[in-house]
Amino acid sequence: MKSLKKFDPEIYKTILDEARRENDNLELIASENFANEHILEAQGSVLTNKYAEGYPGARWYNGCRNVDIVEEIAIARAKKLFGAEHVNVQPHAGTPANMVVYFAMLNIGDTVMAMDLACGGHLSHGNPHNFSGKFYKIVPYGVDRKTERLDYEEIARLAKQHKPRMIIAGASAYPRAIDFKAFRTIADSVGAYLLVDIAHIAGLVAAGVHQSPVPYAEFVTSTTHKTLRGPRGAFIMCKSEFAKKIDMEVFPGAQGGPLMHIIAAKAVCFKEAMTPEFKTYQKQILKNAKVFSDEMAKLGYRIVAGGTDTHLFLVDLTNKFMTGRDAATALDRAGITVNKNLIPYDPKSPLVASGIRIGTPAVTTRGMKEAEMVKIAHMIGEVLTDPNNERNLIAVKKEVGGLVKKFPLYKDLIRRLEKE
Ligand code: DSN
Asked: Phi and psi for 32 in degrees, rounded to 5?
């Protein structure tokens, strides 16, 4: 970043500070990860310069021979990786990817069934302030109050009652495996389309350690930057019969020029996800999440749904007389980054929340394993036992510093930057 340092030292410094923050803290936000340098390189390339409205071989601009190759490779790799019939790699982010499916397949006012945000769903699955909640009649389904797991019989009953045109499966804060085959059966029972949003679990699905929805759903959307560990972006998979509709709704329907530098980075991400190392990585994410949540339970914390089958788990702090907001703030001061999160049927507002969400993708990328998860669980316990004690927070921050030093991020990136 020599050129940036010379031209714009303010921004350069902030990027360096962010690299230091990422390196010096324990990143436990379940939706975040650290993209490898080959992905950052593709993302930071000259492909950012090119307009390419349209699709490979059918662009509105000339000079697209190189970006055509890039997009064709990205599509072919995604199709192979997930076994999808058709893929569109142009969506800029997860919410627009979902929006494309709604707009392509539904009429305004149609009924859509989706997981309640308060039980782990996503903003674009019907939040009243989001396009989805504004334009469609949303029937939310939750989790069983006792088991805190999806209750497929109840979802089937709701579907029969409300006859949705589309059912959405997928979540951003649900720790258990989702049975997409069961969702297919429910959708078929009422003649609904099935859209599965795998943004959180895409890496697990790609590695074959979570059931894939691709054989069961007409539409599967995902981001590329969570467990998949690619650039910040999204893509849509669908059955061939809907390919044209989806492509038309991405462009010209919802977007103009695609971000070709990001599409190149998506291609690199899909290549990485086909390697044996990626499979090992995804398995380790799962092992880490399980050991971590078990250790938190041993320390007296209630784990929502009794544990995890995925990369994340939720800790209910109600019995500790603490809010998710206060816990997340105290942990941040000790160098541990999590987010406050609603627990199912949470009496508190989302701004306060009764729980925190903990994910293992980013710490697993650093090479941490089960032994480190146990250590981190104890550090969290130390912070939450005395969250207002500054000396306690400083002591834990020191422990965090010792641990992250053993697992440097981007190997020697920061050292290199500081030498420039
Ligand atoms: N904001 C993401 C998450 O944290 O789960 C979902 O889009």
From this structure: -110, 160
Q: Whose CA is nearest to atom 3 of ligand 1?
A: 31
Q: Which CATH superfamily hosts domain 281-416?
A: Aspartate Aminotransferase, domain 1 (3.90.1150.10)
Ligand 1: does its nearest atom lie under 6 Å from the Cβ of 98?
Answer: no
Is the distance from CB of 351 to CB of 270 less than 8 angstroms? no
What stretches in the chain show pLDDT beneath 50? none
Question: What are the beta bridge partners of residue 359?
Answer: 312
- pLDDT for position 416: 74
Report field, pTM of the whole predicted structure over 0.90 = yes
Count the alpha carbons within 13 Å of 258 in the hemisphere toward its beta carbon.
34
Q: Whose alpha carbon is nearest atom 1 of ligand 1?
A: 31
Q: CA angle 145-124-338, nearest 5°?
A: 65
Considering the chain, tell me which residue range(s) the CATH 3.40.640.10 domain(s) occupy.
40-273
In the chain, where does the domain assigned CATH 3.90.1150.10 lie? 281-416
**Probe ligand 1: pick from 31, 124, 310, 357, max atoms within 8 Å of CB?**
31
Residues 46-72: pLDDT tens digits?
Answer: 999 999 999 999 999 999 999 999 999
Query: How far apart are the CA of 122 and the centre of ligand 1, in A?
Result: 7
Which residue's alpha carbon is nearest to atom 4 within ligand 1?
Answer: 31
Ligand 1 centroid–CA 324 distance in Å is 16
How far apart, in whole angstroms, are the C-alpha atoms of residue 360 and residue 28?
6
With a 6 Å cutoff on the Cβ, whether 31 touches ligand 1 is yes
Question: Which residue's CA lies nearest to atom 5 of ligand 1?
Answer: 172
In 10 A of CB 208, how many CB atoms? 11
CATH architecture for segment(s) 40-273: 3-Layer(aba) Sandwich (3.40)
Query: Would you name the residues annotated as active-site residues?
Result: 51, 53, 197, 223, 226, 232
If we measure between CA atoms, which residue out of 374, 359, 362, 379 comes closest to residue 30? 359
Helix (H, G, I), strand (E, B) or coil at 285: helix
Look at residues 143, 119, 152, 170 and name the one whose alpha carbon lies nearest to residue 310.
170
